[in-house]
Specification:
Blueprint lengths: L2 H17 L7 E3 L18 E3 L7 E2 L12 E3 L7 E2 L12 E3 L22 E3 L22 E4 L3 E2 L11 E8 L5 E2 L8 E13 L3 H10 L2 E9 L1 H10 L7 E10 H12 L5 E10 L16 E9 L6 H9 L5 E5 L17 E3 L12 E3 L2 E3 L9 E3 L8 H7 L8 E3 L21 E3 L19 E3 L20 E3 L19 E3 L10 H4 L7 E3 L5 E2 L5 H11 L8 E2 L8 E3 L20 H26 L1 H21 L11 E6 L5 H12 L1 H4 L3 E2 L1 H4 L6 H10 L1 E8 L7 H17 L4 E5 L13 H9 L3 E2 L7 H12 L5 H10 L1
Parallel strand pairs: 1-2, 2-4, 3-5, 4-6, 6-7, 7-8, 8-10, 9-11, 10-12, 12-13, 13-14, 14-15, 15-16, 16-17, 17-18, 18-21, 21-22, 22-23, 23-24, 24-25, 25-26, 26-27, 27-29, 28-30, 31-32, 31-33, 33-34, 34-35
Antiparallel strand pairs: 19-20
Amino acid sequence: MGPSTAFLWAATVLVMLQMCTSSHDSIVDRSSRNLSSVPTDLPLAAEYIDLSCNHIHQLHKGEFKNTTLLRFLNMSWNGLELIDTETFHDTPLLENLDLSHNVLRNLSEQRYLSFTGNLRALNVAWNKFENMTLGREFSLLRKLESLTLGAKVISLGDFKNIANVTLYRLTLSLEEELDYEASSLMDIHAEKIQVDLNGGKITQSELLADVLSFFVEVEVRNISGGYQYVKTQLSKRAIISTRTLSVNNIVIDWDDLTQLINATLYTSIAHLSASDIAINKPPIKDTPLTQTSSMQSFTASRAAVNSFFFSQEALYNFFINLPVEHCAIVESSLIHMTCPKKQSPILELDFSFCALSDSIFSRFEGQETVECETLGNVQNLSLVGNNLKNLQVVSIRLQYMKSLQHLDLSINSFVYDGTPNCTWPPSITVMNLSSGGLTDNVFNCLPEGVETLDLQNNQISVIPQLVLKLQNLSSLNLNANRLVDLPVCNDFPKMTELLLKSNSLHAPSLRNLKKCPNLKILDVSDNPFTCTCPLRHFIRLSIQTEYKSGHSGLELLNWPEGYHCIYPEAARNSTLESFQIPEISCSASLLAATILVPSVVLIVTIFFLCRRLDVPWYMGMIWQWTRAKHRARMRQLRPEDLVGIEFHAFVSYSQHDADWVKNFLLLNLEGPAGGLRICHHEKDFVPGKTIMENIITCVEKSRRSVFLLSAHFVKSEWCHYELYFASHQRLSQGSDSLVLVLLEPLPQYLIPSKYYQLKSMMKRHTYLEWPQDKAKHRLFWANLRAALQSDLPSKLVAETEEFS
């Protein structure tokens, strides 16, 4: 199947999939079935039928009588020789017909077209047509939009029967041996013409002359040579009808390419584009370039150079100095782009999906880096999908683009350390930094005048307090980041749109929302909402926005279908709108009243019963017995029980929390500050032993075991083993030797099921929490030291003091 055929039928399939009903019978694929005739069992509801790549040599009347709803028919690659006149009598809805790659022989005798007045697309290329003379049946195709033809001879008057048909696109699939008569295309009325040379060379200058004279939009594709004819025709006429010229899928020498571009610059063509270009013989020095032109845009996509020995600077200089307003080179292996030699007229630059680095537009003179100052007219710049790394350096590269308004730097791998020395042009109003791997620091490197900012799909967890407020920011996209709460608008006083879809918001705080008086559009859908009391105010606000009441005209996007609970388990996947939280469970005053009144009555009743039944006396006895049992247990701890104990505590933690252990825990527990002996794997694991043996030994030699709980802890297999052995030691010795320290909030639902012992301990035992407030750190360390303090054998105590 040829390229034009494939394109046509790809579009056909898309349209058909949109139009087809729920019935599976509407699409019938019988291609490549070795059929010799049209199947008789075609469904009555068939609208799309593919019979390509079979051996159906003839089509007869009545073969489609049962498919009256037929809209699309593919009969390509069948060896078709004959089609009866009334073949399509029973298919009045037929819109798309592909008869390409067959052996039909006479374009003037395609009488079956008399019954296809509803056709919008017809492909009869790659048949055995000698002449392009269209029969009178073509004049009946008044709705035809796309026509694909091919023949060996094109003569004057061949297209007179479609002179009254207005096409959107005419495609001529030609060969090098074409015999073309000048002005043969004058009867065609089409917005666009495609000339497909099928890998051959351009040999007909008369054809090119007519194409450029009669059609506004021209595409020439699949070319391997003959570019001198194009250059000649472009050079002959400065004023031509064509406004858009495209050359696609070509193999061309650098000299031919630059001469073609230079010749086009002298014409009235406004838009020149080239795609899938293979460039041979690239330059070794700068190429002359026309300095003035009325051409508006140049676009090159998927360009490749078939040589390793050439001057990259000469190649880049040619394109960056083009006298056009819009220049785009995309999906190509550009690793650098030079600076124009003089002030450039370019208003829009697009280098998307190339391989550009941070050195873009700059040059070196000795040890100095010279920045580009000749792109001052650029208003739109797209550098999507390149190899940009340093955000601050990129801002320096663009600092002299004084007219720059729209900047797209998405899909790069940025690294930024937070140094506030970014020098963006102050004119930037729209900026896209999505999918760049950026963190919270990015807010220190933004243009002050930005109005629309896209930071979606990054690693932002909080918006820091800014030194310079973004006074003009009205739209902020933070979708797919790591935010845990709504940001405040203190630094964004004009913000009207805030997008926070797919973050880590559990219970958005309305206090922050009230600080955004101008906010009109909010999206917090697809977040992991925990349906507990703190969320009820947000749910109430969401329902109010649905009914246009409450918060001044706020629109909550994707409500209610995009808002679901993930906790508690009983409410998982239920919508926030349907989830009900009892008022009594969230109101402290109501709950207190509900509990206190019955409690007071119960206490008074118990008091009088106790007095009546002498209960105080029994309680006193039980208390004395309990104290006696407690003293007896304490007396059982003898010095010999401490044999083998060398440490006050063994510390179990995830490697991700190692910095906290070194910089905080060891400094406050060991040495003069704490006076304790702490066992941890980096210092006390014995080389040569297995990790498992070291864990068991350290647990056995320690009076207590301290577990630093975090999200990383519950993901670590070794931490799991350490918790397991410490738990078994506690059971075997009958002592409560475990101390739990919570480094960060760790909800129960985030703890894997294999940590059932940890879940049980956290429910039954009191654990210490690492406070974020520095003022509370001293009390935290005092409590932890008190929990670990115990008497060790005197020898170890002496060693500890000597070590201190």
